[in-house]
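#data-curation
PF: Archiving a pair of folding outputs for the training set. Convention for this channel: one message per protein, sequence first, structure tokens after, nothing in between. First:
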Amino acid sequence: MIKRYITKNAIIIFTVLLIWGGGYVYSQLTSEIPFSPPKTVVKYNGKAIPTSLGDHNWIPKSGGSSYETEGEFIVGQKTSKFIAKSGDAIHILIPSKPKDMKIVQIVNTDKYKEYKTFTGGGKDYVFTLPIEKGEYIFNVFASWDADRHNTSTIFRVQIE
């Protein structure tokens, strides 16, 4: 009698755990938010350019990561710059589709200028560099939801 009771309860517990675990795995596989932060690749003339990681949050239901820099402008100044022609195209590749993505020009430690905004999700974005010659620092900010899943990639360009 006791053996039957233990076996019955073990089967019930195993079934509940299997359903709960399967539901969790299914939700992770079908979610549009990846489990770990995707790496943004910035390309000029088909070649990846130097970038640095900016402030980001990637916080799933448990655990996760958050990263704060010493400031985007300082990070941008420390990032290796590349030389480009005015008005040329920059390609931004993100392996999963964020809800929103924006390019922000970092003018100095306290001044930011929204340069270009993309909405609706996508993996490949293109924007045009400024016409005016000079050095620019840009932040590629991608977000999958309001505050728990966002990435920031910083690059520096010298326009000639």
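PF: Second:
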Amino acid sequence: MLHTPSIVLQSSHNPVYTWFWFDTLDGSGVWCQAELPPLEPLVIPIPPELLQGNAFLLTRIASFLDTPSKDDRNSLLALALTCHHWRKATASLLFRRIRIRKFDQFSSLYMQLSHNSNLRNTIHELRYRFWEDVTSSNCLALLLNHLQPSILQIDNFCGVGIDRHAIQEISTAQRSRSIGPRHLRLRMCTFARFRDLISMIHAFRCLEDLFLDVVSWADGYCEVKTLPRRIMPISLRGLTIGRHCDIGAVVWWCMSSVRLSGVTKLGFLSLSASAKEMVVVCCLLHCVRDVLEELTIGVSTNTSDCLDTSHVEIPLASFRKLQMLRIRVLDAQNMLWIRQLLEKLCMHPGDPNTQPTSPSTAITIAFDVWLFHENQIYSAIWDEIVNILLSLTGNGTATMRRLDKIVFVHHGPMDEFEAEYAIKERFSPLNTVVPLEVHYEDAF
């Protein structure tokens, strides 16, 4: 129980990872981890009635932990971690996201699940990082036999250096389940063959969203005709390809094994200057232009201004249902590709069959920017981008989509209030004709 009438959260520039011991009725327990993002110093007064720990207030705390307000959630989470009764009342929310990085964490979680079977239904996201031991694949397969997370993230998987049967074990654990992860994230993973990656993806029957970042295979060879196939195509709704991935291989697999009529979200976070790569991307965009709702485009940090956009011939008006175009600006000094891309996307379609069904449907353009100081947004190339965006602020015609809103999402270390003021001042011509919003998010 608390001995002080207030809690003080100290300021920090990095996320704070708080470990706490969760007690159970049978006397056992497990170490759990809660992540608190950096906050300004905040003093939370505690009303006297909270110190009594009655059931009604505990329930209220548990409900407030799921509120959208980040400050309220983190404050109440810090409050809940200070008392045994509050930890018990908020167990379902504290166990919502689980991270496993070593065997000790796995054994503690597995013991906790064996004593409290209700917790397995509360785990919404499982982040599993492979450690340098052959047992890591067995542990993941064992967890997938008992848990039903909606989001599964696998880090540091190395199909070359660990147990050769790791993928078979994980696949077997999933094929026997009617419910499985709907969102799969693979980060820093290396497979022996490209077909091993596809086999792991095919193992998750209910998969709807796939995210690949720094995923490679040792043989460096991909033959789409020899890849394992499923009887029914995969019903993916979203596909995001990040850094250091063979975009061509993944896209050709997608076009041959995924039901493209259901793909509503595509993301290419690290395009290179290769003309061949742009052709492959445009081929996929052409196939999904009637159903695509959100498109994210970014370039790798080592890509020069000569990003080849000569093959980008799909105008923005041809995407019938596109609601969000997101552009990732990692380098404020490398902006020419954005202007070239917007010019191509805003071209009028020459084929009348490419006209949208509802030409007045509004579209939102979002810029993910990493700002360190305000001088980054005063580059002359931004003036040209503003002029292109102004051409989309009309009421919409048979060949032009209407720009409904512009959103800047700031991820960098620059103060969020200073960044918002600088962005709105810099893009005041747009702010007078179309809503301009500025948000802050942690870097991803």
